[in-house]
Amino acid sequence: MTDRQQIFDSVAAQIAPFNKKGVDLTEATTFAGDLEWDSLTVMDFVAAIEDEFDIIITMNMQAEIETVGQLVDAVAKLKG
Amino acid sequence: MTQATATQTRDLFSKFDPLIAEREALLATGVRDPFAIVMDKVLSPTRAIIKGKETILLGTYNYMGMTFDPDVIAAGKKALDEFGAGTTGSRVLNGTYQGHREVEEALKEFYGTSSAMVFSTGYQANLGMISTLAGKGDYVVLDADSHASIYDGCFLGDAEIVRFRHNSVEDLDKRLGRLPADALKLVVLEGVYSMLGDVAPLPAMVAAVRKHPNCMILVDEAHGMGFFGPNGRGVYEEQGVEKDVDFVVGTFSKSVGTVGGFCVSNHPKFEVMRLVCRPYVFTASLPPSVVATAATSIRKLMSAGEKRAHLWKNSKRLHKGLTDLGFTLGTKEPQSAIIAVILTDQVQAVAIWQALLELGLYVNMARPPATPAGTFLLRCSLCAEHSDEQVGQIIGMFEAAGRTVGAIG
């Protein structure tokens, strides 16, 4: 399993408790559109991701992240 | 000007269609619009006439009841006569009068600081301080429940923005620990959070911040000024962290009883802010009457111990009264002059809000996104001028409205 796949799986595990509609997750799944998350859910989820990977995703970065794939890329980059 | 076209046409207003539809549906049920109240007459800090009915005001943030103080009014009238209706200018050009200097002197005395800078509103004070202090490559670290003016200060500036969970010392500590040690950081806290009326655990938060290098701390005391601490400076004074706070931001539109905002600090280079802070420079300064009323009010607040004691008494009594009736409140114990009643949904919130208004009580209704965790609130803010009799009437009206709507048993 590649590092990227591992990150994807970890991200998916973090999404699960917030995935109330049981949406199938792909790289292209969007947080606002497909998962229908509001800003409060996004905040809780970002905090969970930050703690899981011991990183900071600034609000500036969050504004650029719309899909699960983009988040996985950002996490991979931030983990260095 | 162009004439409005049919609503089906897609234009820049289309993104507001869901909100327009939600409001139309709510108002179609026959309720009054909670966001369109007009005070026809204001009788005192605690009473107004709304649609012909005398109404107790319990949602004004007029904590110390200074709006009708005779000395405050007299100072405003005198300044209006002597200096005119407005300055028509920026603080850094033609908009600094003697009164602006005097109110800044009053603030320096009130806070015991070497500098004070007055903005045209409290919103602009946060907007200006945060966007100017933290520049490109710096970090602003803020509480998730921060006021809109703090968020907007972040968005106006070029810094990186990091949020921590509301009032969580551990979360703040962890996030600061993940930031580059050599980066400069501004940590923004509030003394009282205005939606639920809860107070920040400032000593623990300050201690967490001081474990990390290159941090400055700004505390917004909008809802703490006048009420907390031996000198009424705010929660940071009451909790004994004055030596650890670099900037205090506040407002004249709550305890002071007029309008305007400010920042006080002991930083030796603070005065340069007057030249580089755009929300200070590129707007007109406060009218002479406003700064005169503010200065007089601030000086009177220095020795308002009895008023503070009565306000605490009111807050504790209302908190207990509403708890005993079975309402769910924002805090288990009374922590400030704000008591928030938490309701399940918008329909119930508006129903009680309207029932209270018809009984003669005005409170604020607050809804997401202004509220935390998607809650609907009836927010009560007490005043030092609420009499014991009025507090009794308020509790009685909540009982009647709560039972009518079925929010309490």
Task: Summarize this entry quickly.
Chain A: Residues 2-79 form the Carrier domain. Chain A: InterPro entries: ACP-like_sf, PP-bd_ACP. The complex is a heterodimer of chains A (80) and B (409). Chain A has 80 residues and is an all-alpha fold.
What does this structure look like?
The complex is a heterodimer of chains A (about 80) and B (about 400). With about 80 residues, chain A is mostly helical. Helix content of chain A is about 55%, strand content about 0%. Chain A has 4 helices and no strands. Chain A is globular. Chain B has about 400 residues and is α/β, with parallel strands linked by helices. In chain B, about 40% of the residues lie in helices and about 15% in strands. Chain B has helices at about 15-30, 70-85, 100-110, 120-135, 150-155, 170-180, 200-210, 235-240, 275, 280, 290-300, 305-325, 345-360, 390-405, and strands at about 40-45, 45-50, 55, 115-120, 140-145, 160-165, 185-190, 190-195, 200, 215-220, 245-250, 260-265, 340-345, 360, 365, 375-380. In chain B, strands 4-12-11-10-7-5-6 form a 7-stranded mixed sheet, sandwiched between helices. A 4-stranded mixed sheet of chain B has the order 1-2-3-14. In chain B, strand 2 (about 45-50) and strand 3 (about 55) form a beta hairpin. In chain B, helix 12 packs parallel to helix 14 (about 390-405) and helix 13 (about 345-360) crosses helix 14 (about 390-405). The radius of gyration of chain B is 22 Å and the shape is globular. The interface of A and B includes residues 43, 46, 54, 59 and 60 of A.
